[in-house]
Task: structure prediction
Amino acid sequence: MSSLESSFLNLRSRLGAVDRLNPTSADPLYPFVHRPEETAELMRALPRWRARLEEDGWRVHVQSIAEIMWQVIDASGSWETWLEEEPAGSTEDVIGAVRNALSTKSDALGSGIAPAIRDLVSRAEANRLLLLTDAALLHPFFRVRTLEALVHDRVASPTVIFYPGTKVGQFGLRFLGFYAEDPHYQHSGIIGGEA
Result:
């Protein structure tokens, strides 16, 4: 059995223990850690996994983080300007402009990626299960941990973030396998990532 299939069985087991009727339980957030090179295999397995989860009684919603990012970038109205300025700009300038568009500004609380993700994870619907894909595309703008911090205490239904990276020790994670270890994860919901 592949490590992805083993991790998926672990996820199903944990989801089976979720108290779907207890609104006071801890955030049901599950980082599903997989090696970055397994992403294509994971995406091929996702329709099959979705069917199994629906057989378990879940109403599965799959959402691409990349799609949310593009919606935010499109809504910023900056795309055409970036295309015009890109030839003369440095890579750092382009990355900074995109990061700026994705960041929430204090004077525009509805802008940025944070409100879109918070809205998505805070929807309380019976038997809803949210699967967030394409987290690798947060690089080089954010790390997954940044999004998780933004939704802390707002996750209304079980949410799985497919996390491309590696697990270090019990709670440490390395986004994409090359960022420095984030030793402050302290998350009991980590699925997979075993070497």
